[in-house]
Amino acid sequence: MVIALVSHAQNAPTKKTRTPEQRAEHLTNWMNEKVALTAEQKTKIYEVNLKYAKINQEARAKDADNRKAIHQELKANEVEREAEFKAILTADQFKTFQTAKEEKKEMRKERRKKR
Predict the structure, then answer these.
(1) What is the pLDDT of residues 82-91, one digit of tens each?
(2) Cα separations in angstroms, 64 against 23, 59, 61, 72, 93
(3) Which of 12, 48, 54, 67 could connect to 20 by a Cys-Cys bridge, CB 3.0–4.6 Å?
(4) Contacts of 60 (CB under 8 A, 6+ apart)
(5) Alpha-carbon distance 27 to 44, whole Å?
(6) CA dist., res. 74 & res. 82, Å (int)
(7) Phi/psi at 64 (5° precision)
(8) What's the per-residue H, E or C state across the chain?
(9) Tens digits of per-residue pLDDT, 22-70?
(10) CA-CA distance, 56 to 85, in Å (whole number)?
(11) Contact present, 83 and 43 (Cβ < 8 Å)
(12) How far apart are CA 13 and CA 21, in angstroms?
């Protein structure tokens, strides 16, 4: 039984090995939990997430040796992606998304401090 769990964990995609589709699905599901998307919104948000997951994957491959360039491009992509979210979500949903995103960011900072 333990062996089966260990081998399953080894096959689970990690953050770095996720496909753009997996990244888009993961983020869309997280947003749905936080914002309570309608079915139509969920489809549109997934499409936006997939679009930027593919763009970001290309950016990482293109500038693999230049972390600063990657960071700048990913930040710019994030701004564009959120502008698209703003057109899909209601004002209240977008505010809730922004709050959840900030909370997630703070949690990451706390985890880094503990290392």
Answers:
(1) 999 999 999 9
(2) 19, 8, 5, 13, 35
(3) 54
(4) 70
(5) 13
(6) 12
(7) -55, -30
(8) CHHHHHHHHHHCCCCCCCCHHHHHHHHHHHHHHHHCCCHHHHHHHHHHHHHHHHHHHHHHHHCCCCHHHHHHHHHHHHHHHHHHHHHHCCHHHHHHHHHHHHHHHHHHHHHHHHC
(9) 999 999 999 999 999 999 999 999 999 999 999 999 988 887 888 898 9
(10) 17
(11) no
(12) 12
Residue whose entry in the numeric block shows the structure tokens 């997951």: 53
Query: Tokens at residue 67, please?
Result: 């972390």
Tokens coding 3: 């062996």
**Residue found by looking up tokens 């970001």 in the block:** 56
Token output for 105:
């960011």
Tokens 């589709």 correspond to: 21
- The amino acid occupying position 6 is V
How far, in Å, CA of 20 to CA of 54, rounded? 6
